[in-house]
């Protein structure tokens, strides 16, 4: 069987992302969304998700480039001067590897994010990590620990054929996830085209879908606001929303006999 999962990341980031998620689900092919529990529009996203129960919502763990759940004074080794998790991914990665205190704080922050998701009362369809930071072995183990405690053993594997730089790390991830009994997608479509999953690109990728489960992931928004442009100036968020709502994409999925799925189906 050929399954496809269509996921929107950054649910809860801003209202424009939330509205796009709802539109892409109710009027398009979006099947899942990954919630940032510490983001400014997370409460709105949770309330919205309750009105569209067929949307499968998972936890989008944020360990860098975002807002933490814990107060900055409790995680001083994780945050910058503004109290945010820094957007530079290299510094935190090194710190987690060599600082026991940073690892202690990281474990506490990840646990707090899982607890915050559980407090929403929403069923947790899956877990993934912002910027795919669970390729870092320290982050992966902590996320799996918390996922197991919360009864969620479905996770994104950020494997896209041709992404040679990540291949060794992804192979290690796959082995560790499998050893602990986690379920995951076979491949990820959109890693090399992050922020640019337009209709034409999605149609081409659909034609290449192989056996097993392929997750397509997106970052849609109804408007490219100044705040969103400051975060990712090159993302075509409205183009991604158009792709998710495209009749041509829906027709192609049916014509190819692909089964629209969520992680809980695996």
What would your notes on this structure say?
This protein has 10 helices and 9 strands. The chain has helices at 15-26, 42-51, 90-98, 100-120, 137-149, 167-179, 199-207, 226-231, 237-244, 247-255; strands at residues 2-11, 32-35, 56-61, 127-129, 154-155, 183-184, 187-189, 212-218, 259-261. It has one domain: TIM Barrel (Alpha-Beta Barrel). It is of the alpha/beta class and 266 residues long.
Shape: globular
Number of helices: 10
The CATH fourth-level homologous superfamily: Glycoside hydrolase/deacetylase
Number of strands: 9
The separation of the N and C termini measures 11 Å
* CATH level 3 topology: TIM Barrel
Main β-sheet, in a few words?
A: 7 strands, parallel
Query: Into how many domains do the coordinates divide?
Result: 1
Low-confidence segments, given as residue ranges, are: none
Q: What portion of residues belong to β-strands?
A: 15-25%
């Amino acid at each position: 069987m050929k399954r496809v999962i269509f996921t929107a990341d950054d649910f809860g980031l801003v209202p424009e992302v939330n509205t796009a998620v709802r539109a892409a689900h109710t009027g398009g092919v979006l099947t899942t969304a990954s919630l940032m529990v510490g983001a400014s529009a997370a409460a709105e996203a949770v309330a919205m998700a309750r009105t569209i129960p067929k949307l499968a919502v998972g936890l989008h763990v944020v360990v860098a480039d975002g807002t933490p759940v814990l107060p900055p004074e409790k995680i001083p080794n994780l945050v910058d001067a503004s109290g945010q998790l820094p957007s530079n991914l290299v510094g935190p990665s090194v710190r987690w590897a060599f600082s026991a205190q940073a690892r202690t704080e990281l474990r506490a922050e990840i646990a707090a994010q899982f607890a915050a998701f559980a407090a929403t009362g929403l069923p947790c369809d899956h877990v993934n990590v912002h910027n795919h930071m669970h390729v870092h072995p320290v982050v992966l183990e902590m996320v799996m620990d918390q996922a197991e405690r919360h009864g969620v053993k479905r996770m994104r594997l950020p494997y896209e054929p041709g992404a040679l730089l990540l291949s060794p790390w992804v192979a290690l991830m796959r082995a560790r996830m499998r050893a602990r009994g986690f379920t995951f997608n076979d491949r990820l479509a959109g890693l090399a085209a992050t922020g640019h999953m337009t209709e034409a690109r999605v149609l081409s990728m659909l034609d290449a879908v192989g056996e097993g489960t392929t997750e397509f992931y997106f970052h849609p928004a109804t408007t490219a606001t100044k705040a969103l442009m400051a975060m990712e100036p090159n993302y075509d968020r409205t183009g991604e929303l158009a792709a998710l709502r495209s009749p041509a994409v829906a027709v192609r999925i049916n014509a190819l006999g692909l089964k629209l799925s969520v992680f809980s189906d695996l």
